[in-house]
Fold:
Amino acid sequence: MKRAILMSRVSSDEQAKGYSLDIQVEKLQAHSRKENIDVVNVFKEDHSAKDFNRPEFKKFLQFVTKNKNKVDLLLVVTWDRFSRNVSESYAMITTLKGLGIEVQAIEQPLDLSIPENLLILGVYLSLPDIDNRRRSIKIKEGVRAAKAAGRWLGPAPYGYSNAKDDINKPIIIPNAKAEIVKKIFTNIAVGDIQSEVRYKLNKEGNYISESSFAAMIRNPVYKGQIFVTANTKNEGYYVNGLHTPLISADLFEKVQDKLAGNLKAKKKVDAKSFQAELALRGLLDCDNCGHHLTGSASKSRSGVKHYYYHCNYCGKVRIRAADVHHKIESILDEISIKKNAKILYDSIIKTLLTKNVSKKRPQEKIEDDIRQLELRIRNTEDNLADGKIDAATFNNSLNRYKQMIRSLKSEFLAARDTESDYTQYLKKGIDLLGNMRAFYSNADIMAKRKLIGSTFPDNLIFSKEKCRTASINKAILLIMNTDKGSRKQKTDVLFKNLMYTGTVESIGVEPTTSCMPCKRSSQLS
Structure:
């Protein structure tokens, strides 16, 4: 006696059309009794047959894997109850055959040991697959056509309710929450913050989730427009909806401008977001775990606030902010520029600026090109007056020549304004590098952060005992190494207050040779 598993399947839309899992099971059981087949198990599925990633089918596979050689048949009523995917069906039939199981459809029986029957099986499987694909195309195009006609499909957005119009087609109509929507847009347009507007609504009992709120204030449906999705032939576009707008187009655009402005402001770091007492928060890392150090204040018994940088991740590093700032100033105090470095810096700046100036065209040549174009404009005007060219040709030529003149004038101004005297750049750089500690101490919060960030591209790593970094600005290292000849033998280390753990770099300005020992950039030879 053969042993079988019975499987029935319907999808959601098939249930709506009256298909029944139980009717299929009854047919399969009747067939099993007639053919003297022992029923081992029954699986009922309520899932689409587009693939085999179906909960009940997975249970079926687990069952037959655990009970190998105990099942001979998988019985379905028709092949589309097994699957509607041709390629995956062949693969699954092969998989089940490896487990000793043959798939049979009782109303479309096939002996799959006969090669020619595989062609018939392909037809049985292809027809439902084609039907699925064609139905999907029709549904998508139907939805697109409905949207192109100005209809909102699907659940109504906040402030609207789903309804039917005079011809019994879907439409959305304003409901009691429409006034809330108007209030939201009005408040944001005058400058209220999203989170505050949402908080007030939630407090009043009108709960809207954060994601839903963000989507709502960007949805053009409220100004009366509906988006028609793109297809293979056409791009997506907006149409005027058949529904009543809740707000004007002007109000909607004002809100979008506010949202864009807020996003831009978020991307731009504001100095107010940093406390002077914790100016370096985000630029320091924990020596124990490598995560960023954050900062906070704690009050003493006398009510005085004391600020600390600390690691919230491992909790093992906590340093007084004043000690950190003092350490930073001590490190900057060690960065100085001597005579040799000044000569090098002077030479580099002069070379760079000379190259920059040499790339620009002489002002006389630019002025000559402008005069030539002005002459062409006059000749073009004469040709129009003499009837040699028509008005369209004249306008095209005139616009082209004027555009070229504007470009040349911009080039002329840029060439005129180029600073050939490099001394001002040199002075600024020398002044900064010669007294970085003073500059840092007198700078505002953002200037301090920029100075530290440019001097140490990787974050400074702090513990209670030490400060180290894996990266120092290469220009600063070069300038400091250039001064090595003026330092005494006992002052080999560039920084006394900073440990440098970066990769080995060449020493000084000259390239290293095989006979020169390579040391870390924080060491002098």
